[in-house]
Prior knowledge:
By secondary structure, this protein is of the alpha/beta class. The chain contains 8 helices and 9 strands.
Amino acid sequence: MSTKDFLPNTPNENKDNADNSRTTASLDQTDLIEKSGSVTVSDKGRSIHCLTVIGQIEGHYCLPEENKTTKYEHVIPQLVAIEEDPTVDGLLILLNTVGGDVEAGLAIAELIAGMTTPTVSLVLGGGHSIGVPLAVSAKKSFIVPSATMTIHPVRMNGLVLGVPQTLSYFDRMQERITNFITANSSIDKDKFTTLMMNTGELVTDVGTVLDGEKAVEYGLIDSLGGLSDAIDALYKLIDGE
Length: 241
């Protein structure tokens, strides 16, 4: 064993070790983003997990490979891990989704709404269809002025039996979604139903498209704002303000 083995690291060696550690951490974060569309960052002694919900919410059936999707079987375990991880102080949800599987989206929204971990959502681009419950599920919600949200009744693809039971099923599913949205936002149930059943705006559908200002005006989203506003609000929730 040489004398060097007993000597402390020189300043240059310490710098190299620090640089290597940062490089390894950066590679780990990049790998996490590629695999799950999420990342955990720390600042000022607080750790925030960022979860992205993009494209279409994929449910029980796989969508074509060319589709951008958020898979609920990936998101649900992440949410459980975040809730149970004492090192994660808050969750930031970034939304740019066209909607997708109703039950999968509602399941994710219910999990977020039931978390004790501070949560903030930010709608970027669009938070359409089942993306609406996801946006309001956080304890505080934001939307950028250029984003839009489409509110419309439940729709179903594929074979539909033209019997009264089908209409009853649609009504009950729509009631679940409406009740969740109105319970987790400030919009009035009658107003939400009016927007949802509007026949004068969408060319081939029933419903309403709201821009950022209108979404806040109607009480669907809490505030207009961007990334810095959402992060500031999350820090305040973490600090109990």
